[in-house]
């Protein structure tokens, strides 16, 4: 297997072979999870610290579950009541953590680049669980695994990413990953929710939902990132759903076997009709959640292998 990374900070540094290696391992973990097979020796003796400076349900829970299934000692730090709230800088937090000698550090932070800064200051493997509007690499990887399992491949597909592109780290990571794997990517959004410089992304851009969805294989809906908005980006939620919410009429423009995705949490009746979200023949939203655990298991497994190799046997804590 080929996976050389010391950290998983984003999709951008990963080579397609590294993406394939991680997805192959995650695929096997997904099957083992379904059969109840434990792998508690993989991270045995290693310490995993989860630091979430932003609220999270799916990502934090799946990282915690992934670590425990692999046998790590998992600690969740309550950052809402941490010393950061008392004025401690991010670098001081990193130095404090480093003194605790963790092996795996999972970080979500509201500011782009904060996770990369932490990675420069600690002597362990760092996984980016989302930083500002920058990246969310494990979400893109679990989306890729979900697509590959549903479609039987992860190349030369037509994939539409719809909604709040401008504020979405999920969109950014997916655009990079799916582009590396030779897919045709369409972005569909109102001009107010389309990022600046989108012409340089190597994608097709649409304002009209029906045109953008024509004959696509995958429809990936995005949540309106209201917490990152500081102005009137949409006239109203009702108008937004009318023009950009996924319903049966709009989905009919995609291929008959097109799958529907959403990273969650969903705003039903705003980004997606509830009937579409629950359609077991089209929606793979629950599969995305399931693949999230498998992808995070694979990512921590591969990073731990590289960490052990770099430290040497005498430095690995058991």
TrEMBL record:
Pathway: Pyrimidine metabolism; UMP biosynthesis via de novo pathway; (S)-dihydroorotate from bicarbonate: step 2/3. One of its GO terms (cellular component) is cytosol. Signal peptide: none annotated. Carbamoyl phosphate binds at residues 58-59, 108, 136, 139, 264-265. InterPro entries: Asp/Orn_carbamoyltranf_P-bd (IPR006132), Asp/Orn_carbamoylTrfase (IPR006130), Asp/Orn_carbamoylTrfase_sf (IPR036901), Asp_carbamoyltransf (IPR002082), Asp_carbamoyltransf_Asp/Orn-bd (IPR006131). L-aspartate binds at residues 86, 169, 223. It comes from the Bacteria. Transmembrane segments: none annotated. Keywords: Pyrimidine biosynthesis, Transferase. GO terms for molecular function: amino acid binding; aspartate carbamoyltransferase activity. Residues 6-148 form the Aspartate/ornithine carbamoyltransferase carbamoyl-P binding domain. Residues 157-302 form the Aspartate/ornithine carbamoyltransferase Asp/Orn-binding domain. Its EC number is 2.1.3.2. The keyword Transferase applies. Pfam families: OTCace (PF00185), OTCace_N (PF02729). It catalyses: carbamoyl phosphate + L-aspartate = N-carbamoyl-L-aspartate + phosphate + H(+). GO terms for biological process: 'de novo' pyrimidine nucleobase biosynthetic process; 'de novo' UMP biosynthetic process; amino acid metabolic process. PANTHER family: ASPARTATE CARBAMOYLTRANSFERASE (PTHR45753:SF6), ORNITHINE CARBAMOYLTRANSFERASE, MITOCHONDRIAL (PTHR45753). Reversibly catalyzes the transfer of the carbamoyl group from carbamoyl phosphate (CP) to the N(epsilon) atom of ornithine (ORN) to produce L-citrulline. Catalyzes the condensation of carbamoyl phosphate and aspartate to form carbamoyl aspartate and inorganic phosphate, the committed step in the de novo pyrimidine nucleotide biosynthesis pathway. Heterododecamer (2C3:3R2) of six catalytic PyrB chains organized as two trimers (C3), and six regulatory PyrI chains organized as three dimers (R2). Belongs to the aspartate/ornithine carbamoyltransferase superfamily. ATCase family. This is Aspartate carbamoyltransferase. The lineage of its organism: Bacteria, Pseudomonadati, Pseudomonadota, Alphaproteobacteria, Rhodobacterales.
